[in-house]
Amino acid sequence: MSRDDPGTLTDFCRKYDLDLTFLSDPDHSVHEAYGAWGERPGRGPGVIRSTVLIGTDGKVERAWYGVKADEHADEVLKAL
Fold first, then answer.
1. Which residues pair with 53 in a beta bridge?
2. Which residues fall within 8 angstroms of residue 45, CB to CB, at 6 or more apart?
3. Rounded to whole angstroms, how far apart are CA atoms 79 and 51?
4. What pLDDT is stored for residue 41 in this prediction?
5. What is the C-alpha separation between 16 and 59, in angstroms, rounded?
6. What is the 3-state secondary structure (H, E, C) of the chain?
7. How confident is the model over 26-55, as pLDDT tens digits?
8. Which of 50, 16, 17 is nearest to 33 (CA)?
9. How high is the mean pLDDT of the chain?
10. Of 27, 22, 26, 25, which is closest to residue 11 (Cα–Cα)?
C-alpha cells in the first residue's frame, strides 16, 4: 500500500523489475483504517511504515508499526 499514484507505482516496479501489485491510497484512508497514518515524532503527520499480516480469512493476524525495512523481513518471515 502506498500513497503514490498508480503510475508512479508501476514505474517503481518496472525500475526494480518487481512482479508485485501495489495498491494506491493517495487520500490515505486505508492507511488510517489500519493505523498506518498518524503523527510521527518530529516529522508531523504522515505514513507510519507498517506491516499488516492478513490471514486467509481476511482478518488481521498481526501488525507491526514503525518498522525499519532492513531489519524487519526476518521477523515477518518467522510469523508466516
1. 62
2. 37, 38, 39
3. 12
4. 86
5. 30
6. CECCCHHHHHHHHHHCCCCCCCCECCCCHHHHHCCCEEEECCCEEEECCEEEEECCCCCEEEEEECCCHHHHHHHHHHHC
7. 999 999 999 999 998 899 999 999 999 999
8. 50
9. 92
10. 22
Grid cell, residue 21, equals 501489485
C-alpha cell at 2: 502506498
Which of 46, 50, 47, 43 has its CA nearest to residue 69?
50
With a pLDDT cut of 90, the percent of the chain lying above it is 75
Residue whose grid cell is 505514513: 47
